[in-house]
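FYI - complex with zinc ion, inputs then prediction.
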Amino acid sequence: MLNRLADYHMHTVRCGHAAGTMEEYVEAAIARGLGEIGFSEHVPMYWLPEEQRDPTAAMSMAELEEYVSDVVRIRERYPEIPIRLGLEADFIPGHEEALARLLERYPWDYVIGSVHFLGDWNFDHPGLVHRYAEWDIGELYDRFFALERMAAESGLFDILAHIDLIKKFGHRPGKDLSEAYAALAETIARSGAAVELSTAGLRKPVGEPYPAPALLQACCDRGVPLVISSDAHAPGEVGWGFEQARELALRTGFTHTLRFEGRRRRAEPLE
Ligand code: ZN
Ligand code: FE
Ligand code: FE
Ligand code: ZN
């Protein structure tokens, strides 16, 4: 049993690259002993014209309406577990206003901020891995971390997802990252956002959680609050690897994780 932890990062079939009904995610969470969950579907690709939006990357605007009402409805059906309304929203520089306007329209419990794009390149898409060959990997990491710092500074997000996602396929820069880690952790601490310790990286070629232990430590040292997430794209992934993640969080020095409701937070002891 997962000690009543919360898992706030779960997708559904609506994004076009996940499996399972919402009921199956909720029932998996209850079976595993999670204490609270939240759905966080990928935001519609608000920064692109409608006809350029990829239905296998995110839900459409019409689906967003249905998604919100389905989360509200499923809450009533499962009184045994609190079910929060979240969203995973891409940070795209220059489109902060459009995102802020979209967020205003619904009663989110929390908003997760993610960097999945460098320009038009969806760098975490398995079908686009060949484009890493166009880059000096050290330079690529610098560009990614700059965007991640901007995402924190935007103030749009309660939680930052997979803050070193650029490592997903195992591309490593031939340089020390401690300065980049310190700068990112410092920026996040100032922004007030929480970071996600995500077990999804353990299921990917890189084979380590997001963020790397040294980056997680840099965040902990600066007082950045934590959530533990699975980034489930199938019911079997809900709460996946959470025992290991909790051990890592405790070893790093975290004592609490955050719970969210109506974009307000409270700290819950980790043990
Ligand atoms: Zn996804
Ligand atoms: Fe993501
Ligand atoms: Fe996600
Ligand atoms: Zn994600």
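Residues 90 and 201 are 18 Å apart (CA to CA). Residues 9, 11, 88, 231 surround fe (iii) ion (ligand 3) (CB under 6 Å).
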